[in-house]
Structure formats: structure tokens, C-alpha cells
Amino acid sequence: MNKVFIETYGCQMNVYDSELVLSILKKEGYELCGSIESADLILVNTCSIRENAEQRVWGRLDHFLQEKRKRQDLIVGVLGCMAERVKEKLLEHPVVNIVAGPDTYRTLPKMINDIRENAKQMNIQLSRHETYADITPVRTDKNGVSAFISIMRGCNNMCTYCIVPYVRGSERSRDPHSIVREAKELFEAGYREVNLLGQNVDSYLWVDPENPTNTTNFAQLIELVALISPKLRVRFSTSHPKDMGNGVLYSMAMYPNICSHIHLPVQSGSDRMLEKMNRKYDRAKYMERIHKIREIIPDAAITTDIIAGYCSETIEDHKATLSLMEEVKYDYAFMFQYSMRPNTYAARHFTDDVPLEEKTRRLNEIIELQNRHSLESNQKDVGKVFEVLVEGTSKKNKEELFGRTPGNKVCVFPACGHKAGDYVHVKVTGCTSATLLSEIVEQ
Ligand code: SAH
Ligand code: SF4
Ligand code: F3S
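Above: the input entities. Below: the C-alpha cells describing the complete assembly.
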């Protein structure tokens, strides 16, 4: 048996894609191994979203080179977004044999075989149609409870700072039958949660090629998945403020097993910045969506992404972001300082003019405020009862289990004979800014 070691960087889509790749390679007789020393093939699935994500990968390639010096027949492949962006420059690294973009994974076995004839292989063709709908990923998660399902690929939104549309290609939705089939198979294998993934799930749209009047939108898709079983939790990300309609909110309100959590990236609280980012909503429209979520799903957790120090961002723009955060009071946020990505609209037309120290200072202010809000949000949960899906044993204490509330907050509690995959009701007794402390209650 040949052994493959896969290292994954970047977002949940890459985690899913690595599982697809493993499935493709297993059919060719490969099995997964846990270390580079025992691998015949090392694959690194990469991310280009910010410069530091790429720097880490260059560092890893240098590290793999140590291993290759000992074993000349070791094969190293770079997959994913950075493969698509950096292209042949990656092949110049002495350790790299294969460069494969996100839409080319079906050709990996052939590329591996062809290395014997030609030491270097590259395929970075993007596709308008590839959704890997027929491939069942080999799950590599540790818990066997929660899994990702990719429902669409690519992105058509062209936010001016973002590399994703260039490295993932244009948006395409996957056949809903294949999504429901995959979710059903997971449920039958003991999984209790699926997380439906797309860059903008609200623009999911399947048009049946046999009968174009037959369409499925995202609100309908989450219903189809929720109907598999009330014991299967449904999550999804990412929602886009410009496209998130009320239909999705109503589907969420209808089905208790669709978790009341919306990840709604705002990026900035300043209208001038939002316009410059080409986000296609303004602060008022964003707030209208927030109010609608709270009206239809009063207990919904709301999380976001924020970028600090975008091109020409002033102190006033930055303050607008802080004031929007005060207005929404997010339960959680992913916060970044702007990183210029080559060849994006921003790189070609704007100047990356906020000095690095100032970007960092603004980011730290944003993080500090969010930490306060996260703690307040957790404190508000003390005394409440939540249904939690048990995911495993707590890292800090073997006598305790951990799981997540529907709002995606991590909860720890004494085991009381329960195990991963069980649903329990817990009462929150205390908290930190990251975790809810709780105990099991009879329901
Ligand atoms: N499709 C999702 C997010 C994809 S990328 C959406 O539209 O919201 C995840 C997050 O990375 C983005 O929401 C943004 O906050 C951040 N990001 C993207 N490009 C970036 C860049 N050039 N510099 C810093 N952060 C960036
Ligand atoms: Fe990037 Fe915007 Fe697409 Fe999200 S919606 S992936 S931020 S271009
Ligand atoms: Fe994801 Fe990074 Fe690519 S965030 S889509 S792996 S650029």
C-alpha cells in the first residue's frame, strides 16, 4: 500500500477537499498515514487568503525538503488555492513534484503516475462545472459526529480585496440530490451534524438540466437536509448580507434541527469602505438584515468577519466598524488585518496605505471589543438550558465532555455516562469568554 500524508490549510472548504482527494487516492490503493516520515506522497492543501497563509506553506516546503534529501523517491504535491495562484513558481521549489488547482483533483492519480516520465506535473485548469458531486469524501475528522458538505464551489462576488474568485473560479451549485444523499449516508454512519459550505450559500441555485423549470434554492435545500431526521443538526456558512433573504430565516425558524446560528460577515461598518470593497450593501441594509434575523429567530447567534485597515481606511471609518460592533454585539467574530493580494481589483487600483502598525492597532482594538462582547454574550447564557450535541472528551479534563449549543458555543460538562453523538440538555453554570461551563439536566 502506498501511504499519503495530507496537510490542510485555509478554510472548511479545504478540509472538505482534502477528504475528496483522499477518496480519489484510496481508489488507487493509497492509505492515509499520520507522519511525513512514513509517507510515499505528501500533499499540502493550501490557502491564499492572506499573505501569511502562503508564507507558512513555503516554510513547510522547506521542511519537506529535509525529508526528500533522505528519500529521493518521495513525491510532494501542492494543492488548492495557492497552487492555483502561484502556479509554476511553486514547481521551482526543489521539493515540489505536483501543482494541482482545486478543480483538478480527479486528475491527481494520472499526475502521480506521469511523474516517472516527467519529474514535474502541473494542472491548474479551472472548471465551470466541476462539483465532485459523485465522489463521497473519506472522512478524516476525529469525532465521527460532525462533517462538512460542500454544496457549491467558486465565487462570483468580486469583493475588491479578495483572491477567492481568482483561485476557486466561478460559482456553481451542486445537485441537491447528491447533497441529500451524502447527508443521509453520514447520518446512517452515525454522524449527527452536517455543515453545508459555500462562499455565499444564499446564491445557491440548482437548475435541473433535464427540466429547467425545476429549481432548488438555498432555503429549500436546508429544508430537504433538515427533513432527513430531526436528530440530524444542520449548519451552514457563509451567508452574504446582500443575498440573505427571509426564506432562509423562515426555514430556520420552522425546523428545530437547523441550528439558530448565522455567520454574516460585515467586513466594515463604514459605508465608504463597504462601497470600496464592492460588498453591494451598506450599513443600513446590513442592520436591516440583523433586525430581521432577530425578529424571525430571536435566539439566533450572530457571528461575523471583519477586516481592519483596508485601503484608505480613516480613523472615522475604523470607528464606524467599532460602533457597528456595539450596535450588533456579535457572539463571535473572525478578525483580520487587510493583506494585499496580488492581481485583485484592490491591488490593481488602490493603495495599501494604512501603515502596518496602525492596522495592527486597529485590529487589536476590534479584537478587544469583540472579546468583551463574546464574554457578555456568554454571561447572558448563564442559567439557560441548551440542547448540546456531544462531540467528545474535554481536552482539559477526561471526566468531562464537550459539545456545542445550537448557537455554536462550546460547552463543557461532567460526562454522566454520555458519549460522542448523544444529545443532552445542559444548564449553564458559568463561563469564560471562550467556553460555557455547564451541567446535564433531565429534560
Ligand atoms: N465568502 C465569505 C468569506 C471568505 S474569506 C464572505 O464573503 O464573507 C473569509 C474572510 O477572510 C473574509 O470574510 C474576510 O473577512 C477575510 N479576507 C478575505 N480577503 C482578505 C484580505 N485580502 N485581507 C484580509 N482579510 C481578508
Ligand atoms: Fe471573497 Fe467576497 Fe467571494 Fe467572500 S463573497 S469569497 S469575500 S469575493
Ligand atoms: Fe479557503 Fe483560503 Fe482558498 S480561505 S477558499 S482555502 S484562499
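Note for the figure: The chain has a mean pLDDT of 97.
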